[in-house]
Design goal:
This protein is of the alpha/beta class. The protein has helices at about 5-35, 65-75, 100-110, 130-140, 165-170, 170-175, 185-200, 200-210, 215-235, 245-265, 290-305, 345-365, and strands spanning about 50, 55, 80-85, 90, 120-125, 150, 270-275, 310-315, 325, 335-345. It has a single domain (about 45-200, about 240-365), classed as SGNH hydrolase (Rossmann fold, 3-Layer(aba) Sandwich). It has twelve helices and ten strands. Mean pLDDT is about 80; it is low at about 35-45.
Length: about 375
């Protein structure tokens, strides 16, 4: 039976745990701040370097400038929209002034078709087809549907079934970032202000407890190290075979089919393509079972066999020598692994030229 003398220990244990946890968080946040360059990345870029462009938006981030400008342009003009994942904007072995194929293509199209179209790219790391659908739905809810839409189909990203919260709410983000009669900059500031008011407690905590600002970084680093620990235990590398998860695979394929069905209503043009893949054209290992990969390509091509849809298989467009490597994704290893997702600027130039040509051909043939 507890006595009054025992009561303080009832409070000391949880207070001690909270204090110890706080000290750990502060120490660990300071550690990752000083060693961030050596930490595993959680953004899907690996050793590739992200690039930016005025006409390339990254949904789900809090840099609303691009969305504000895009909303202003897309409301008034026929548009060309390119969707993508980190392959679109991450350049391997980057040199000064180099940009990704999304920026290259949109810059080129905006120069050549300035009187007829405005072009934008929308890209997020590890984007699934279901997330592409959420982005397309969000954009068209307050603008004219894209006259031409370009969709890459990555087998790897069909393994993701969940749509990130920031993407599932993209209609709210994209449509409210701009208001009639406002400049893009005014719209951006108003949107940020509204969201900051709704997040007052979080902002107050961050101002009073500086290490709270590091929690997202801490979470990213912790997940990154757990990812590397898993790879070490199960001997997983970039070349390991990635199995298809049937439920998420079917959900993503259906999302693509839904996009294509909806675009038939206004006879809008859609270009669907299989993106470049290292070793796709030879007998060297790829990170999928060859039969699974072949089935996927046939499924995507069959989905596009309808009016106003153009299918391209660009898997072999970027030769092997234009790809890069990345740091090992296992703990304790200093060896380099092949990067099956990102290539050098020369590869980006090849893909940009090919997509630009496909878009111009579709315009000439269908419009």
């Amino acid at each position: 039976m507890k006595t009054r003398k025992d009561a303080p220990s009832f409070f000391l244990y949880p207070l001690g745990s909270i204090l110890a946890s706080t000290i750990f968080l502060i120490a660990y946040s300071n550690h990752i701040s000083s060693s961030s360059s050596k930490a595993p990345e959680g953004n899907g870029l690996l050793n590739a370097t992200p690039t930016k462009s005025d006409y390339m938006c990254t949904p789900g981030t809090k840099d609303y400038t691009c969305e504000a400008n895009a909303l202003n342009h897309l409301k008034k003009n026929n548009s060309i929209i390119l969707l993508g994942n980190s392959q679109m904007y991450a350049v391997n072995q980057i040199k000064n002034g180099e940009i990704g194929y999304g920026a290259l293509a949109t810059n080129n199209l905006n120069k050549r078709l300035a009187e007829s179209f405005v072009s934008y790219s929308f890209a997020i790391p590890n984007a699934s087809l279901s997330e592409f659908k959420a982005i397309v739905d969000g954009i068209k809810s307050c603008t004219k549907p894209a006259r031409i839409l370009i969709i890459p189909a990555f087998l790897d990203d069909t393994r993701e079934s969940e749509i990130r919260n920031s993407i599932s709410m993209y209609e709210e983000t994209f449509c409210k970032v701009g208001e009639e009669g406002s400049t893009p900059q005014q719209s951006k500031q108003r949107f940020i202000s509204d969201h900051e008011n709704s997040e007052f407690i979080t902002i107050w905590l961050k101002s009073k407890l500086p290490f709270i600002k590091q929690l997202q970084t801490l979470n990213t680093h912790t997940r990154g190290y757990l990812y590397m620990l898993r790879n070490t235990i199960f001997n997983i590398s970039a070349s390991s075979i990635r199995p298809i998860t049937r439920a998420s695979y079917q959900k993503n394929i259906e999302s693509l089919k839904t996009i294509l069905r909806q675009r038939l209503i206004n006879k809008d043009i859609t270009i669907v393509y299989i993106p470049p893949l290292l070793h796709a054209s030879n007998s060297k290992p790829i990170p999928y079972k060859r039969e699974d990969y072949a089935e996927f390509k046939k499924t995507i091509e069959a989905a596009c066999k309808r009016p106003h849809c153009y299918f391209y298989n660009l898997e072999s467009l970027v030769p092997d020598e234009l790809w890069g490597t990345k740091n090992s994704t296992s703990l304790g290893s200093t060896s380099q692994e092949l990067d099956f997702m990102h290539f050098t600027y020369s590869g980006h130039k090849l893909l940009s030229d090919k997509l630009t040509s496909a878009i111009l051909n579709a315009i000439n043939y269908s419009l």
